[in-house]
Design brief:
Blueprint: H1 9-25, H2 32-56, E1 67-77, E2 86-96, H3 101-118, H4 126-145, H5 149-170, H6 175-204, E3 206-211, E4 214-219, H7 223-231, H8 254-271, H9 279-287, H10 290-313, H11 317-322, H12 324-344, H13 348-369, H14 372-403, H15 419-432, H16 439-454, H17 456-481, H18 497-515, H19 518-541
Parallel strand pairs: 2-4
Antiparallel strand pairs: 1-2, 3-4
Helix pairs in contact: 1-2, 1-4, 2-3, 2-4, 3-4, 3-10, 3-14, 3-18, 4-5, 4-10, 5-6, 6-8, 6-9, 8-10, 9-13, 10-14, 12-13, 12-17, 13-14, 13-16, 13-17, 14-15, 14-16, 14-18, 14-19, 15-17, 15-18, 16-17, 16-18
Length: 542
């Protein structure tokens, strides 16, 4: 038995950044070193705990060892479904981890801590910056651990609010307009997601329980209850008191299932983002401060993919399977559209922004494969791109601090004055284009191998996107590091220790996942195998 199983380790992990936030509030705003030290420590401690969880993860139990459940609030509801049972609406505090959420949890803690180090040069309202920063981390951790729909929604909205202020106050020239656009697009996505969640709870979020008060029918956003009821529509007949209702009044119709699935696809697709809901993301990558872009590109975009996998594919495998060609088409559009426009950009931040769109297309292609290899590839791609994009934007922020520009024509020959940072940029660029031995190769390979089994023509077209990725990434990276050096860049200082350390840490994870991918795939496989069992059960049942 795990030595952590008897303590609320998930709640402790969630509360660590919150405790850091509370300590920050007690520090005078002019104590910059103390503020920075508290914020950095508050982000480093979750890394230790998440690494402990990852190494202690029981693949046989699929993370069942770590599950925390408590009732926040119970509200009686009048209902005539049965005279023998009381109707209760329950708001639950439910946390858990599995092979899908745990790698993203580790990604979150690592990237957030590295971003906190990258932000130590923030001078404007540093206390407020790190306060919103720690609140953002708490929200992200909650998103990946929540096992209740409404709890998930609350954490999701916390990340939205925190990111809005971080962009709108500490961004560049068009920061307020960018923050407003970010809020509008993501607010629409959240509204669609909430509608889908309410429909889910009212059609599948119930269970019967014998309590001290008698027989009760509990409505809640419990993910486990909803998954059970959707996987087996007749499961309710074995519950206490079911006979009193005759037929199941809560059975979800095919039309309702399709409605919820489409709402989830669009809601989470805005966050991913899926073309054509991507324009807000380009502005954020260009205008947000480097530390925030590291988190946005490395983690927040992954929340869209995670939400769609968790609530779209796992709850509605039949609908998702029927839309496999549509998902593959959307993925191919993302891949090629992002790659072509990245190749045409002359501003490095926009190159990386369009590159993120392109790489999220590979995630969609892996999901559309609907086999174990493709799904593993999609999740590996999420984690890999999180580390790679965070490292690239960390370097971009350091370059901008020294040169005042990220325009490719204004940069060149930096390898002579900044050899370490140029080497790191080259390594991150090679990882992004999928060089074997680095993490980007594993995610792309598994995704395309899985897709090749089901849609060979799409896989053949996707190869063009991989070629374009190599073209625009090498063009940008080599143009910055080699070529003719400008006189004003001759005396540029190479990376300081506080910049070099996060670069080394992120590169270490990229190399580890590239050389030893089973560290990730063995954990991810726990959830993927369970999903494939559910998918085949749906096929045989349908």
């Amino acid at each position: 038995m795990s030595i952590l199983s008897d303590i609320p380790v998930l709640s402790i992990l969630l509360l660590l950044p919150v405790l850091g936030l509370l300590v920050l509030l007690l520090i005078p705003k002019n104590r910059h070193r103390a503020i920075t030290a508290v914020a950095v420590v508050a982000t480093l401690l979750p890394i230790v705990l998440s690494l402990w969880l990852y190494t202690d993860f029981d693949k046989q139990q699929g993370g069942a060892t770590y599950r925390e459940d408590a009732v926040w609030l119970e509200v009686p509801v009048n209902h005539d479904w049965t005279q023998e049972a009381d109707i209760i609406f329950s708001f639950d505090y439910s946390l858990g981890i599995d092979g899908l959420s745990l790698p993203l949890l580790l990604l979150t803690t690592v990237v957030t801590a590295m971003a906190a180090l990258a932000a130590i040069h923030v001078k404007k309202r540093r206390k407020a910056f790190y306060a919103w920063f720690l609140l953002l981390e708490a929200g992200m951790l909650g998103v990946f651990m929540a096992r209740d729909l409404f709890l998930f929604f609350i954490f999701f909205e916390i990340t939205l609010v925190a990111a809005y202020f971080l962009i709108g106050i500490w961004g560049y020239y068009n920061r307020e307009r960018t923050a407003n656009q970010f809020l509008i697009y993501n607010g629409i996505g959240s509204a669609l997601m909430l509608i889908a969640f309410v429909l889910l709870v009212n059609t599948a979020g119930f269970r019967m329980e014998e309590t001290a008060r008698g027989l009760e029918m509990i409505y809640s956003g419990s993910y486990a209850d909803i998954l059970r009821n959707l996987a087996d529509p007749n499961a309710w007949v074995n519950l206490p008191g079911a006979a009193a209702g005759g037929t199941n009044p809560f059975e979800m119709s095919g039309g309702m299932a399709w409605t919820i699935f489409v709402l989830l696809l669009i809601g989470f697709g805005i966050k991913l983002p899926i073309f054509p809901f991507h324009t807000w993301m380009l502005k954020v990558h260009a205008e947000a401060p480097p530390a925030v872009v590291m988190i946005h590109s490395g983690i927040l975009l992954k929340m869209g993919a995670y939400g769609f996998i968790r609530f779209g594919l796992l709850l509605f495998p039949e609908q998702a399977r029927e839309w496999a060609v549509a998902l593959a088409t959307l993925g191919l559009i993302n891949l090629l559209y992002g790659a072509v426009l990245a190749f045409r950009q002359t501003e490095f931040k926009l190159v990386l922004a369009y590159s993120s769109i392109s790489h999220m297309g590979i995630v969609l292609l892996g999901l559309a494969a609907f086999n174990e290899i493709g799904l593993q590839g999609a999740i590996v791609q999420l984690v890999s791109h999180g580390f790679i994009s965070a490292m690239l934007f960390l370097i971009v922020g350091s370059l901008y601090e020294r040169t005042g520009t990220t325009e490719l024509p204004a940069l060149g020959g930096l390898a002579r004055s900044m050899p370490f940072m140029s080497g790191m940029l080259l390594a991150a660029g090679l990882a992004s284009l999928g060089l074997p031995g680095l993490s980007g190769f594993v995610g792309e390979l598994l995704s395309l191998l899985g897709l090749f089994e089901t849609m060979r023509w799409v896989t053949a077209a996707a190869v063009l996107g991989i070629i374009l990725t190599a073209a625009y990434m090498l063009r940008s990276v080599l143009g910055i590091t080699f070529g003719e050096r400008r006189e004003e860049h001759a005396a540029l200082r190479d990376a300081r220790f506080v910049e070099a350390l996060p670069m080394i840490v992120l590169l270490a994870f990229i190399v580890l996942l590239g050389c030893y991918p089973s560290v990730l795939t063995d954990t991810v496989g726990v959830s993927v195998e369970g999903f494939m069992d559910q998918l085949f059960a749906t096929r045989s049942g349908g």
